[in-house]
What does this fold into?
Amino acid sequence: MKRQSVVFTRPRMVEIVEETLADDLGDHQILAQTVVSAISPGTELLIYRGQAPDDLAMDDTLAALSGSFAFPIKYGYSAVGRVIKMGKAVDRSWLDKLIFAFNPHETFFVANVQDIHIVPEGISPEEAAFLPNIETAVNFVMDGRPMIGEHVVVFGQGIVGLLTAALLRQTPLARVIAVDRYPSRREASLRLGVEASLDPDNPDFIAEALQHLGSDSLASGADLSLELSGSPVALDQAIKVTGFAGRIVIGSWYGQKPVSLSLGGKFHRSRITLISSQVSTIHPELTGRWDKTRRFQVAWDAIRQIRPAQFITHRVPFEQAAEAYRLYDEQPQDALQIVLTYGSSQ
It folds into this structure.
């Protein structure tokens, strides 16, 4: 049978390519027809712009993302589909199940049973497509370890930043401050209930942020900052608004973008901890009690609570995928979360 796949052929060039699938499945494989897939405005946009290091492996932990970031590549990790065929060793009850897979954007996909997730009852296909981003947000919160009464700043209110802010609003913090350059995203974070949502391009941003953080803590500034904007400049700003012995979770992947930090001033004496955070792994201190299965369960529960489909701004037919990437690239102020729809499989 034939399928169509989204392929990045060179910077800012996306094509729909037809491929032939093998007739036979492996004993433990399933074939699914895609219903919806979500585009990552972080990693996928770096690839689209040609800013991903082409000598770096895509993701050794995901079977569907082997190889490097060198063009041409297929990339994507949020596909929801219905099972239409199973291998010999797969129980027949899998037929017609709604499933999630960390798979590129394709009209049909093949996956091993151990690599897919059955979508729980009460969660729609569009909501299920948020699983990777909500899992990432859960991971950031776990790595940041917010404590009761702390002051927290979230840099970046793209989809992952918004989901992280939503999770933080469920914890008994003193205040959560959001930061984003786009008014529409700041408005979205305010609807989530953050105390303030600030513009980092404001010349008085640092003073404004410190004022909102208040002086009721031992040292002025944030106890915890999370840099999720994808902008290297934001990391420098995070250092400036984080208080003595505070923590900064760096969730952004900058790709080939250079990062310049001012480490000769406040940082030198502030004992600030910089924490590298990436969802492929769990912090080693937690692995005695936490594994990915447990973290996925937390992520599914968070989807039920947050209902992230509210953040979808564009639903684009799969055949017009190039337009979706162009929107992210040229109109980031309007494109919060774009999903690709697969008409014949709705």
The chain has two domains: 2-129+307-345, 133-284.
